[in-house]
Amino acid sequence: xxxxxxxxxxxxxxxxxxxxxxxxxxxxxxxxxxxxxxxxxxxxxxxxxxxxxxxxxxxxxxxxxxxxxxxxxxxxxxxxxxxxxxxxxxxxxxxxxxxxxxxxxxxxxxxxxxxxxxxxxxxxxxxxxxxxxxxxxxxxxxxxxxxxxxxxxxxxxxxxxxxxxxxxxxxxxxxxxxxxxxxxxxxxxxxxxxxxxxxxxxxxxxxxxxxxxxxxxxxxxxxxxxxxxxxxxxxxxxxxxxxxxxxxxxxxxxxxxxxxxxxxxxxxxxxxxxxxxxxxxxxxxxxxxxxxxxxxxxxxxxxxxxxxxxxxxxxxxxxxxxxxxxxxxxxxxxxxxxxxxxxxxxxxxxxxxxxxxxxxxxxxxxxxxxxxxxxxxxxxxxxxxxxxxxxxxxxxxxxxxxxxxxxxxxxxxxxxxxxxxxxxxxxxxxxxxxxxxxxxxxxxxxxxxxxxxxxxxxxxxxxxxxxxxxxxxxxxxxxxxxxxxxxxxxxxxxxxxxxxxxxxx
Length: 505
What we know:
- This protein is α/β, with parallel strands linked by helices.
- The chain folds into three domains: about 5-220, Growth Hormone, Chain: A; about 225-260, Roll (Spermidine Synthase, Chain: A, domain 2); about 265-500, Vaccinia Virus protein VP39 (Rossmann fold), CATH 3.40.50.150.
- Helices cover about 55% and strands about 15% of the residues.
- The chain is built from 18 helices and eleven strands.
- A seven-stranded mixed sheet has the order 7-6-5-8-9-11-10, sandwiched between helices. Strands 1-2-3-4 form a four-stranded antiparallel sheet.
- Helix 3 (about 65-85) runs antiparallel to helix 5, helix 3 (about 65-85) runs parallel beside helix 7 (about 195-210) and helix 4 (about 85-95) packs parallel to helix 8 (about 215-225).
- About 50% of the residues are buried.
């Protein structure tokens, strides 16, 4: 082998490190989307992938001849399996009952193949370079590839290309480098080089077609996941946004979880907003955390005293949807177009920590359920103490708090965590047909207990003085239970939530 060709092998190492981690990140992201609990899923994916690499490294010891050809064969296999992994995961989740077997089995196969590549490269290179230099350089380029993947994946690839196209693009990179290698190392490849090149071309064509048809493949998978026709879908760096339509109504899903149905969302949002607003005489400055769809803001603007609403949401695609999508703009009554509303794109905890403006009269907390640790931090004592420092001393807050019927322990964990943060609490619940019984917590600091709210704006479809008072009554099967509070360092709430909702899946 000519020494001048050695840099190509370093390029191969870089590709191996980059593509291997990309496939791992794809699997972990998709697993967290569809199975929840991103920490557990990523931990499992990483563990399976690394152990599979160990198996691949062990198997490489049984390859004794024609190392360059074997390496190129394996690189083609990695490109094919890794490139098609995202559509495979999506489709298997939509149409198969044993999705986990497909997920973890595919990760294991990719890990074995990647584990085979590195030892083979090192054995090829040691004929030209001292062994200590081979090890240091190969591992350096492998780790640089992993760094490149970890930077590109969340910042550029997923927001710009989506999960499916990202996988297929890196599959094509794998195969393209292998195809190039069939020319540069043709004198070292024993057997039919033409056959190897033909296979590379076929795999490139398959992946290229998949790249072009990625939207169709995603739609095919989502048709199996959702009952109604999909009218809008977008993958952001934070979540998968899907809107479906049935008849004259529509539903919004985030990463497969229903956020609202236009048929009954007014029940959820009236209960979320008005109990807190009704405890303040002429509330003027309102903080909304989450709720990028603008539906909570719509209810807030029913109060004529409101002068400013600050809406903080992590995903700009969500607030863009609430601002621009005609059907959602009609539903939220153009609330995000109102001159009194200021939209901020930021992580709520970070924003609260940095905020130095005037304190707020009311805070409405409308985060998704705590089904992973990234969301769970927004239900911790640390978060509520931070929120308390940004509102007036006796300003009320309302926190959406999952279902006290289906996730009773989770609900009361949120209640007790808010209480442990220095708030008086008034738990309440409402029936929202799309979700069942749903829970909230009305809370306020100060020495006095929270009075039951009575004043409501006109024109509400769900709440009146009688129904409002009934929200604060709990039947026996939804009453308080003993729980641990949710702290930032352990996030017990996420475990409660996982265990309870798993029974209903």
